[in-house]
């Protein structure tokens, strides 16, 4: 009986990493720009990694950032920071965080440019880090997680994208502030594609185990007189405001990436809305597609351990399926050879 309840709740995806040195906590960050260095600083400040490596094609930049970060590391025990251009220095990392990126005139051009960068860097990352977990931050994050997975040939649990981690945390905090309760007492997730097409799972929002849809059946819908759906709009709007004012969100992202890293190194099995390989899940059938979208995933030492099967409403399932179809179409035109 207990087993069937667990099976109804969780999709097991993890394939253990064959690695003799699982205790190792060397982390490599590929891309020493705004996001890569914000993550590096957060990892150092929280004393998470014993060894941290930064790689970037811009040798002057990476040298400067490494020297600067080494000074920060002097205040923390055990943190060793190095960096350069050559991927051999990342050798035998437990986690490789990919933050390289180039902007484009539009989304399509950004995707093509970053796909080309991934074609260059992912084989190098894999060559020196055959047992690593890959965490993809570069945008557009969902499709580039697919690209990294394809190019790496790793099992799907070992490649996941940053996805809707920060958006879910913002959603939870904004909702909690309305009820004047701690965000720890409230459960809420944003899933699917990152950005305006993300799916807020209103059907699952609960406060201390009480599902809000049981109290207000229209919660988060267009005909809800209380207009709770505004909170999802606010999450999206906040991201756009930050992007307009300072190009991209970095500090909350860096702290939440640190939480993901801790979940892997310490096998915490905490749940995050990360971009993962979608198959039959949530009542959405994607067995014929290899798309990556955010779902609540339990993160442990091998990356994604299990996916939590939420009971979505019909509307939420439709939105998720639309995003999966869209990603599949986009992927068909990618040149990965
Ligand atoms: N997923 C998310 O929620 C999220 C949030 C913010 C930013 N991002 C994305 O993160 C990425 C990085 O953002 P940023 O602000 O740090 O950009 P940035 O321009 O400051 O840094 C990118 C770095 O990548 C390096 N680089 C480019 N091509 C390379 C290559 N072939 N080999 C090695 N290094 C290379 C550049 O030299 C640069 O230092 C972007 O794609 C951005 O859109 C994602």
Automatic annotation (TrEMBL):
Q: Which residues bind NAD(+)?
A: 31-36, 56, 114, 137-139
In the record, biological process GO terms are: lactate metabolic process
Q: Where's the Lactate/malate dehydrogenase C-terminal domain? A: 166-327
The UniProt record lists the Lactate/malate dehydrogenase N-terminal domain at 26-161
Q: Name one GO molecular function term.
A: L-lactate dehydrogenase (NAD+) activity
Which keywords accompany this UniProt record? NAD, Oxidoreductase
Name of one Pfam family that matches: Ldh_1_N
Family stated for the protein in its record: Belongs to the LDH/MDH superfamily.
Name of the protein described by the UniProt record: L-lactate dehydrogenase
Organism in which the protein naturally occurs: Aquatica leii
